[in-house]
Amino acid sequence: METKKVFLTEDEIPRQWYNVLADIKMNPPLGPDGNPVSPDMLAPVFPMNLIEQEVSSERWIDIPEDILRVYTIWRPSPLVRAYALEKALDTPARIYYKYEGVSPPGSHKPNTAVAQAYYNKEFGIKRLTTETGAGQWGSALAFACSQFGLECKVYMVRISFDQKPYRKTMMATWGANCVASPSTETKAGRQILEQNPDTPGSLGIAISEAIEAAVTDESGQTRYSLGSVLNHVMLHQTVIGLEAKKQMEKIGEYPDVIIGCAGGGSNFAGLAFPFVYDKFNGKDIAIHPVEPAACPTMTRAPFAYDHGDTIGMTPLLAMHSLGHTFIPPPMHAGGLRYHGMAPTVSQLIVEGVMEPKAYGQMDTYEAGMLVAKTEGFISAPETNHAIACVIDLARKAKEEGKEKVILFNFSGHGLIDLGAYEQFLAGNLADYEYPAKEIEDAEKVLEQYPKPKIIKSR
Amino acid sequence: MKKSPKNLVRRCPRLGNPVPFHYCEICGDEQQPCFKILDCWWEYFDVVQYLRDNLPEAQFNHLMGARPKPKVASLLELIEKAKTSQDR
Question: Are A364 and A392 in contact (CB under 8 A)?
Fold first, then answer.
């Protein structure tokens, strides 16, 4: 019988994370005075050991034994050969996926949640706060805190809190205190509730509450936790790619193509960064972060500094973005907003190390449906972006007659996100590709912006 | 007569669950429209024209001209806001 899954033993879990900051040069986030943001400015919300990781340029960072012990609950995660998908596509490509849906909350998120809980505990912190939308990150942090005996407070956006009772039950089962946001427990929450008692809440309000709860705890024993975008989050996720490399080595394979969906960038970076290291060291490998076609911030937008506010009082950060003054014509309104991509991923795109791809939502759901019918797992809607790219490249491999090895990150299952599939199955979705000319117009607007120096790491 | 889009539903990529359009009109800062409202809804209907017709001109222009906030910058703003609020 063909080998479907490749496993590592627990003692083969990587002992170090890979820090891509050792191998790339970054434009630093800038303060209002034009100087870089200093680490201690973040000290009210993060413990110093995590801030040190945030700015570290050490290439390999040891994974503490206590974190490895918790990782063994679901790690090493399996590397799976997608035989049935290959057969359905009639492709010569060999398709593998790293399945992160086996974690207790069902996604890659606990890879960093566990690490963050550990470092906070080491720093003497007793309680973590965070915000969550539908609950994927809140669940991951609740699970992680339960493993280290930390209190966990989750501010869950009211509209999601009401829609997703199982998520709050998951968090409560792990001992976390999840409240609907806005809540009466913070000034920010009370202020909103006074104005509008029936508000459905928002992520912005929930973040405000979580940060206020951390910053105003006079005992100094509360900190805030964030599950995406920041450098230390990307670092912790690299355990995914490091395991995958070992697994592929076991079967004598090496990927030609790496694919991951990229929202904030953490699951993509987790798989891709260890292969970026190989690419820096001479490997010929294509690496594709995948985003919705509706938001072509990576695929087409230029790299520029964006001001945080209109009078330039907040820091500047070099990111992919479209011009703020660009007004879309009617019917061409998509793809105009930055969507919070990790700066490290942005930098690697600028350097040409990665080539972003974009797919329309119909392609992504059709991809998810095909995987469900062939490989069996129902994927999270965000994972479907990666799968759409896999299918596209596997079909191209067939056209070209090439036996490419494709590896993608199956970042989570979609069992608590079936509402999105329901919309697709009901025929309520449609696609639109943003015209290249409109992006060119946006680039002209951006000519007036300060441009970051494009640093090349190699 | 035009149908109102307010009750159209789609998955919110920020929250991860379905939301009606009218939620997107109020879930941004200061209960303004969400900064992703154009990204999310242009596939369904002419959301730009809808907003032009339904928002005061200044608010419409503000939304169209709104600049994204990098995460670190947002965090620093919120830290400062929380400290200020505590001092009052």
Answer: no
Which residues from B are below 8 Å from A330, CB to CB?
46, 48-49
Give which of A38, A336, A362, A416 to mutate to test B binding, by max B Cβ within 10 Å.
A336
Which residues of chain B does A306 touch, with a Cβ-Cβ cutoff of 8 Å? Answer: 67-68, 70
What rounded mean pLDDT belongs to chain A?
A: 85
Rounded CA-CA distance A114/A116 in Å is: 6
Which residues, in sequence order, are CB contacts of A107 under 8 Å at separation 6+?
A100, A101, A136, A140, A267, A380, A411, A412, A413
Report yes or no on B25 lying in a domain: yes
Whole-prediction pTM: 0.88
**Residues A158, A260: one domain?**
no
pLDDT tens sequence across A356-403 = 888 877 889 999 999 999 999 999 999 999 999 999 999 999 999 999
Residue A423: domain span: 79-104+233-446
Q: How confident is the model at residue A265 (pLDDT cuts 50, 70, 90)?
A: confident
Residue B5 has pLDDT above 90, yes or no: no
Test the B interface: residue of A41, A157, A233, A438 with most B CBs within 10 Å: A157
Checking ipTM against 0.95, whether it exceeds it is no
